[in-house]
C-alpha cells in the first residue's frame, strides 16, 4: 500500500515539475517589440540623432526590449508620434497625450485615452486653461512629458508618484531630491514665476524642510508632501486660495498634522503652527514694501496677487525681519571696518618703530 502511495506521489511530481520549469522559462523570456511599422530599421542604431538649432545633439535611439517592457510597449510608434509620413521626419508633431490610442478599455470597450487626466491637468494650476480662454504665457506651463519623462522606458510612468503599487510597498519612485529638482526646474525661474504672479521658490533651500532632506532625514517632506498629500492628485493641484487646496488656511492644520504615507509629520500641530510660513518672504512682500521695482503688467500682476496672498501681519513681520537684517548688516560692516582700521593703525605704528630702530 505504501509503495503504491509513493509511486503515485512520484508520478505527480514528474507531471508537475515540467510545468513549473516551462512557466519559469516563459517568465524569463525577454519582451519583444512588435515593430509592425518598421521604425527600428533606423532607430535601432545607438548613434542615430541630429543637432538642433542650439547645436545640441538629440539622440533618437530606441531600445526595443526596454520599450516593449514599458507601460506603452503594446502601442505602435504612430499611436503617439504623428507626422511620420516622410523620411527624414520633418513634419513630426508634438506628442499629444489626449489622443485616443489603438488600445481598448477592457471595461468600456472604447478606445483608450488619457483625455480625462489631461482635462483635469488643464483645469489645475499647471494647466493652460479652457481651449478658448488660455492663460497668459501658456508656453511656460508644463505638459505631460515634462514630468513623465520616461526616458528609460520604466514599466510605470515615474513622474511625481509616491509609491510603486506593483511592489506592494511604499517604495519611492523619485527621491525627495528628484522631486524638488523637478519642481524647482520651473519654480526657481524668477522671471517665469513673475510673469504668472508667483513667488520664486529659491528661498525653499533656506527652510528647515530642505535642511532635513539635505542631511538625509528619511521622512523629511518634499514639495508634494504638502502640495499633494495622500488623497490628492498631482494632476489637480489647486491654488492656495481654493478651499479644496490642502494648503488653504482652513485645511493646513490637517495637512501638517497627518503623515503622508510612510511619513510622520507634525501630529501635535496647532492652528498657530500651521498658519506659520514655510517659505521665506520673497518678491511679493518686497514689492508691497517698496523693496523691488518692476514695470508694466508684471508689476501689476504681482502687486494684485501679493495683496491677495499676503496678510497685514505678514507684511509687519517682513518689515521687522528686514529691519533686523539691516541692523545686522550695519553691525557687521562697522565691526569689520573697525577691525580693518585697527590693523592699519597697528601696521603704521609697527612701521614707524622699525624706522626709528634703524
Give an overview of the whole structure.
- This protein has 358 residues and is mainly alpha-helical.
- It is extended and about 100 Å long.
- The longest helix is centred in the last third of the chain and has 46 residues, at 312-357.
- The chain contains 14 helices and four strands.
- Helix content is 43%, strand content 4%.
* Helix and strand sequence: HHEEHEEHHHHHHHHHHH
What is the makeup of the main sheet?
Answer: 2 strands, antiparallel
The averaged pLDDT comes out at 74
The total beta strand count reads 4
Strand order of the largest sheet: 1-2
| Rg from Cα | 30 Å
- SS field, number of helical segments: 14
Tell me what portion of residues adopts beta-strand conformation. under 5%
List the uncertain runs: 20-29, 154-171, 291-303
Straight-line distance between termini:
123 Å
Q: What helical percentage do the residues reach?
A: 40-55%
Structural class, from secondary structure content? Answer: mainly alpha
Structure described in brief:
With 358 residues, the protein is mainly alpha-helical.
Detail the topology: elements first, then pairings.
Blueprint (H helix, E strand, L loop, with lengths): L1 H27 L11 H4 L5 E3 L5 E3 L4 H5 L31 E5 L6 E3 L1 H8 L21 H4 L28 H12 L2 H6 L12 H7 L8 H5 L24 H6 L13 H4 L8 H6 L7 H14 L2 H46 L1
Antiparallel strand pairs: 1-2, 3-4
